[in-house]
């Protein structure tokens, strides 16, 4: 087997083991002191119907910790994958999943749902729909003479994001005190809201998107060379850009609608993965996904165990992520960006 | 003759009322005061009601005095709608018609609207939602801008700002002095303090200090996670529990007034009693027992022992208001049921409102209803 391939396989294997270990550690960590045997009992009872368990243990482990862990894994994979896709198609290492205004659009959707609950019944669906709408608008704005220029797309994303941010400002201004707090907390992001329903939705849409992106990752490699090179190598960059933007937007909007806005993962993990396995997106996608899952899982475990209250996970993600990115920019910029 | 007239004028001026506010600044109060602008969430208006001077209010800065609040609460098999009102809005519906010179969320005074309402005096209560006071520089700027209007300004510091409940006495005394009714205002404070003393006396010999959790439920968070917001150990709420109620804040190592807390963390704290303040909406106790949204909390000891209580309706009320003793009484009875079994809160509330606002039985019952306290009839 090729050395590079072997390195990727071993990296994925090692990260997968680390993910399992992190998940198990997260499962036995928490403010309520539960034993490993409790965790095993709950798993045996719920999956195989063996034995009996205390109702409190059942709620804490099965209803509270399990969904958080699984949603952390799914959202971590989604955001990191979306980051890989965006950075490749825009050929810009500082692009993150919300560059096309998805987060601002989703925030507006969530604000609308909080302000007008009678009209927008589901906050998640509203956030998701407006996240997609923002990206669609950005794409329409950048589409000229049958071509979508990457720079124009980023610029229109910034513009659309700015418009939706202003609309969120108006929503905040119009909202009552309690609604204002709702909007603020939603925008801070957090996995405390995780439910089995969110997991089902994220797994049903997010994982197939990830698999499609992985299958098409070699085309992502071609896109990252530039439109001319991609065209000369036989692929239509416009079509594949649209496909990848749809995939990345879908999975990042799904994440936002489930857990609010969590920054940095989509920006950091592609760089971390590149450091580990090089520049091939076929390797970066799974490695970055696994790294994103582990990172968010660790951050969330810290968020819910460091104090007797809940620390918004976005704070920990940024607190640990910013120095990391700074280190990359300082120490590895030549290797990463040529 | 000229000298005599001059002497009379000087003497009148010397007798003109001046009141020292909580900044220590002497403020000249205009004669025959008719138009007052209030920057308060109901406390100043409440004292003015007690003194019979509420009709002097000509413009307001708190949206809580204007809004009608409605909440739909989901139970096991029913949805109920509750409507809450600020006591001042309920007693004086005309407040809704007055100019309001603040943004809906507070802290952004519209000075032109204020000036346009031509008040003869401004009374600012620092610490309410309307002007929070947490940002000292912003507060100083607000005060200096208000002074630049040349309208006399009285500044009061609320307990949220001073971190001391007893400073309400100074607030009341100053409002009383403006109308030459300092004794009456202090009498009001003495009445409120007597309820505090009643609570202190009843809990003096309790053998166990229960652990109480304030749980501000949130619409956005009330999916299966059933998380909420609680108060840290450095808040007036915690101080009240520890110093007055003889109970403990179930949260022992968090600071700040908006600490997020997850369902698992609530299990970890295992509170004896849960109090539901008006946080992101009003929440009656039946909601947490029945709503599927809180199913994950069902195994909490406090729920099993039916020790979850709803606090009076207080949106947009960042600081203590005149009705605070009623809240204290509910907390005290929730924490020490045996010691307070002789006090029927619902009946107490009627007498309390009557004394507070010099109103009749019907109006007092109306206030109890708009404060969403009718449940206390079975407490």
From TrEMBL, chain A:
Principal subcellular localization: membrane
Any Pfam family the entry gives: FecCD
Entry keyword annotation includes Cell membrane: yes
Membrane topology type: Multi-pass membrane protein
GO molecular function: transmembrane transporter activity
GO cellular component, one term: plasma membrane
Signal peptide range: none
Record has Glycosyltransferase as a keyword: no
Transmembrane segments: 6-27, 39-62, 68-86, 98-119, 125-143, 150-174, 194-218, 239-263, 283-299, 311-329
CDD domains to which the protein is assigned, alphabetical: TM_ABC_iron-siderophores_like
Keywords assigned by UniProt, alphabetized: Cell membrane, Membrane, Transmembrane, Transmembrane helix, Transport
Protein location: Cell membrane
Biological-process GO terms, alphabetical: siderophore-iron import into cell
PANTHER family documented for this protein: FERRIC ENTEROBACTIN TRANSPORT SYSTEM PERMEASE PROTEIN (PTHR30472), MOLYBDATE IMPORT SYSTEM PERMEASE PROTEIN MOLB (PTHR30472:SF70)
Annotated family: Belongs to the binding-protein-dependent transport system permease family. FecCD subfamily.
Name this polypeptide is given: Iron siderophore ABC transporter, permease protein
Source organism per UniProt: Campylobacter porcelli
TrEMBL record, chain B:
Alphabetical list of Pfam families matching this protein: Peripla_BP_2
UniProt domain Fe/B12 periplasmic-binding: residue ranges: 35-339
PROSITE patterns cross-referenced by the UniProt entry: FE_B12_PBP
InterPro entries reported for this sequence: ABC_Transporter_SBP (IPR050902), ABC_transptr_periplasmic_BD (IPR002491)
Protein name from the UniProt record: Iron siderophore ABC transporter, periplasmic substrate-binding protein
């Amino acid at each position: 087997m090729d050395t590079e391939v072997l390195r990727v396989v071993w990296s994925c294997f090692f990260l997968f083991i680390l993910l399992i270990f992190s998940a198990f550690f997260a499962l036995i960590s928490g403010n309520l002191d539960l034993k490993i045997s409790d965790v095993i009992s709950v798993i045996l009872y719920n999956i195989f119907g063996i034995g009996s368990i205390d109702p409190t243990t059942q709620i804490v482990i099965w209803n509270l910790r399990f969904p958080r862990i699984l949603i952390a894994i799914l959202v971590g994979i989604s955001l990191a994958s979306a980051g890989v896709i965006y950075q490749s198609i825009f050929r810009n290492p500082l692009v993150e999943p919300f560059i096309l205004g998805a987060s601002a659009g989703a925030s507006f959707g969530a604000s609308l749902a909080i302000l007008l609950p009678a009209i927008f019944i589901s906050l998640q669906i509203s956030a998701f729909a407006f996240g997609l709408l923002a990206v669609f608008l950005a794409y329409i704005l950048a589409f000229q003479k049958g071509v979508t220029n990457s720079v124009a797309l980023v610029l229109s994303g910034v513009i659309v994001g700015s418009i939706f941010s202003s609309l969120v400002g108006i929503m905040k201004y119009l909202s009552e005190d309690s609604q204002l707090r709702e909007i603020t907390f939603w925008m801070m992001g957090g996995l405390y809201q995780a439910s089995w329903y969110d997991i089902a939705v994220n797994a049903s849409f997010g994982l197939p998107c990830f698999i499609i992106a992985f299958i098409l990752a070699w085309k992502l490699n071609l896109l990252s060379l530039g439109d001319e090179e991609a065209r000369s190598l036989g692929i239509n960059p416009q079509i594949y850009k649209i496909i990848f933007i749809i995939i990345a937007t879908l999975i990042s909007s799904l994440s936002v609608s489930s857990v609010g806005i969590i920054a940095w993962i989509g920006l950091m993990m592609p760089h971390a993965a590149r450091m580990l396995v090089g520049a091939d997106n076929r390797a970066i996608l799974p490695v970055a996904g696994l790294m994103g899952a582990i990172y968010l899982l660790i951050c969330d475990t810290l968020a819910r165990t460091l104090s007797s209250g809940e620390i918004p996970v976005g704070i920990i993600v940024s607190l640990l992520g910013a120095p990391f990115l700074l280190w990359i920019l300082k120490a590895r910029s030549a290797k990463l960006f040529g | 003759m000229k000298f005599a007239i001059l002497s009379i004028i000087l003497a009148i001026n010397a007798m003109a009322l001046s009141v020292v506010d909580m900044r220590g600044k002497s403020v000249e109060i205009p004669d025959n005061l008719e138009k007052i602008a209030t920057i308060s969430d109901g406390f100043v208006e409440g004292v003015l009601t007690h003194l019979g001077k509420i009709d002097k209010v000509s413009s307001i800065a708190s949206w809580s005095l204007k809004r009608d609040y409605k909440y739909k609460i989901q139970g096991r098999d029913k949805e109920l709608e509750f409507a809450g009102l600020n006591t001042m809005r309920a007693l004086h519906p005309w407040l809704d018609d007055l100019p309001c010179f603040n943004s809906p969320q507070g802290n952004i005074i519209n000075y032109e609207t204020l000036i346009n309402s031509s008040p003869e005096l401004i009374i600012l209560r620092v610490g309410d939602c309307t002007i929070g006071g947490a940002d000292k520089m912003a507060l100083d700027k607000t005060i200096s801008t208000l002074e630049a209007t040349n309208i006399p300004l009285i500044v009061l510091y609320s307990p949220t700002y001073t971190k001391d409940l007893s400073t309400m006495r100074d607030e009341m005394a100053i409002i009383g002095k403006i109308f030459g009714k300092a004794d009456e205002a202090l009498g009001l404070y003495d009445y409120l303090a007597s309820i505090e003393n009643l609570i202190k006396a009843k809990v003096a010999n309790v053998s166990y200090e229960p652990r109480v959790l304030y749980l501000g439920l949130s619409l956005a968070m009330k999916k299966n996670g059933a998380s909420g917001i609680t108060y840290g150990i450095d808040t007036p709420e915690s101080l009240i529990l520890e110093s007055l109620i003889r109970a403990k804040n179930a949260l022992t190592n968090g600071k700040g007034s908006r600490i997020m807390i997850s369902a698992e963390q609530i299990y970890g704290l295992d509170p004896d009693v849960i109090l539901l303040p008006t946080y992101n909406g009003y929440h009656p106790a039946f909601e947490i027992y029945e709503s599927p949204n809180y199913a994950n909390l069902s195994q909490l000891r406090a729920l099993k022992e039916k020790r979850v209580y709803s606090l009076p309706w207080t949106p947009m009320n960042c600081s203590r208001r005149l009705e605070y003793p009623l809240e204290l009484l509910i907390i005290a009875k929730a924490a020490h049921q045996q010691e307070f079994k002789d006090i029927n809160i619902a009946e107490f509330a009627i007498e309390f409102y009557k004394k507070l606002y010099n109103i009749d039985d019907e109006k007092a019952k109306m206030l109890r209803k708009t404060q969403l306290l009718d449940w206390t009839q079975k407490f």
